Amino acid sequence: MSTQTHGASAGFDWPVRVYYEDTDAAGIVFYANYLRFMERGRTEWLRALGFEQDQLRAEQGIVFAVTAVDLKYLTPARFNDLLTVRSSLSHKGGASLAFEQDILRVADQAVCCRGSVKVVCLDAATMRPRRLPDRLAAAI
Predict the structure, then answer these.
(1) Domain that holds residue 106
(2) Pick the catalytic residue: 24, 70, 81, 123?
(3) Is there a domain that residue 93 lies in?
(4) Catalytic residue flag (residue 54)
(5) Alpha-carbon distance 129 to 133, whole Å?
(6) What domain count does the chain have?
(7) pLDDT of 50-88, one tens digit each?
(8) Residue 140 belongs to some domain of the structure
(9) Could you tell me the pTM of the whole model?
(10) Could you give the angle at the alpha carbon of 66 between the alpha carbons of 130 and 21, nearest 5°?
């Protein structure tokens, strides 16, 4: 279940449950797993706009790659917590996208992790930057 309000940049929510495999020896979400949760949020945002990454590769010859990440860990999430990954598009360039993403604990709306993520659109064959396809750029 997800929500999106007033266009692609307004915000998109995606639910994530913390599984045992997501936690570390202290019983909290292992820090690198927040990146996995954010990846899911961006992928589901794109899917909600009508774009599947495997189809973009097959039909348009493009893939996306993360080029920069800035994360702040604010409060721990623990096993079995229900989280919301909130993704908002903060910038659209010719061949790049920038996102602001928060991971909130549903029970109390505490922000567990806050991040800025930049991705670039690449030609799948050459791995060189390539402009976003027109249809995708228009949807965003």
Answers:
(1) 3-134
(2) 24
(3) yes
(4) no
(5) 12
(6) 1
(7) 999 999 999 999 999 999 999 999 999 999 999 999 999
(8) no
(9) 0.90
(10) 145
